Amino acid sequence: MPDAAAMGLEPAEIKAIITRMKRAHGHLGSVIRMMEEGSDCESVLTQLAAVNKALSRAGYAIVATGMQHCLTEGDGPGGVDAKKMEKLFLALA
Prior knowledge:
This protein is mostly helical. It is 78% helix and 0% strand.
């Protein structure tokens, strides 16, 4: 298991995020196979959108969990770098 503490996440939290990302990874492999096999555009784009959504949700979970830790572990609202958090959220948009 990766060092969850390095990311400021609890092992259970990071495990759930990794599971979500592995599932997205598997779906991406399916999208690649679909393209190689000549599947129709609509099917490929539908699956690709699902992969994109899954990865975005994983990213949001990482940022939100990190922010939650900052707020609950003594840093308080003043300890959160609002600009940095905004930049991280926008990077996922």
